[in-house]
Request: fold
Amino acid sequence: MTTLMADVAATDTAAIEDFCARWEKAWNDHDGDAVAALCANDLVYDEPALGQTAYGPDSIRRFVNHMAGMFPDYSFTRMGLYGEVTRRAVLVAWRFSGTLAGTGRRVEFHGDDRLELGEDGLIHAYRCLYDYKGVLDQIQAASAPV
Reply:
């Protein structure tokens, strides 16, 4: 039986690992529905590429689908996993790698996902952190003619 994050603060490493493995798999499967299913209806979603805070699971579903179109082979590799000991929150450090569609050129960068979970075991606040300007620079360079 799977332990839900709702059952613990982020001190149960097995529960943290299980939840984050499902999060990582959903992203790496490019499955917007699976990513959205891990998010609550009142999700507050901060993603640098959006330019503003978004709300609800539909916003993240759309972003996953957008990412799959821009980087058809993208993947995230988990680099670290850190749990908050006093509340249901984790930080997932990752590395992104993907080929920009139509260019054959790779874009790679690292970032962190800050996930705050509710008693229902779903993500209520998701803050994605990375060097957005650095990513834009890579995309621009990858898009330039050879």
Summary: The radius of gyration is 16 Å.
